[in-house]
Each structure stands twice: as C-alpha cells, then as structure tokens.
Amino acid sequence: FEYIGIIIVGAFIITWVVSAIIYRLAGYKQLEREFDTYDPERIRKTALSDERLKVTDEKDRALDATE
C-alpha cells in the first residue's frame, strides 16, 4: 500500500498524455475548427452538391412544396 497513490497518479498522468497524443494525431483538433465556423448555409450547399444526397434533396423539395 506504500506506492498506491503514486501508481494512481502515474496512471492518470499516463492516460492523460496518451489521450492528448491521440487527440492531436487523429485529427480531433480539426473538428473543433469546423464547429467553430459553423455556417448552416455552407453546409446545405455542400450537401446539395453531393450526388449521394440527390434523392434526399428531391424529397426535401417535394416537402417544401407541400408546406
């Protein structure tokens, strides 16, 4: 029981350092910037230009026309 405090604090510091490294290397820092510059209109334009969302866009237009 002599070193239990040192082990707990050491484990905390090691996990903190590892998580900080993963945060930077995995690109999570970029996500912060994306959310800081949130612009709904830009996101909508990007989504509408995406071919995979073309069917969804047509459904949205049909819904907008009925409202």
Quick structural gist:
The chain has helices at residues 4-25, 28-36, 40-49, 54-66. It has a domain at 36-67.
Structure description:
- The structure is a single chain.
- The chain contains four helices and no strands.
- Helix content is 81%, strand content 0%.
- The protein has 67 residues and is mostly helical.
- The chain has a domain at 36-67.
- The protein starts with a helix and ends with a helix.
- The chain has helices at 4-25, 28-36, 40-49, 54-66.
- The relative contact order is 0.06.
- The model has no long low-confidence stretch (mean pLDDT 74).
Observed structural traits:
67 residues; 0% strand; membrane; transmembrane; transmembrane helix
From N to C, what is the helix and strand string?
Answer: HHHH
Find the count of extended strands (DSSP E, 2+ residues).
Answer: 0
The value of Rg in angstroms is: 23 Å
The largest pleated sheet is described as: none
Average pLDDT figure: 74
Helix content: over 70%
Proportion of residues in β-strands:
under 5%
Given the structure, what is the number of helices? 4
Keywords: Membrane, Transmembrane, Transmembrane helix
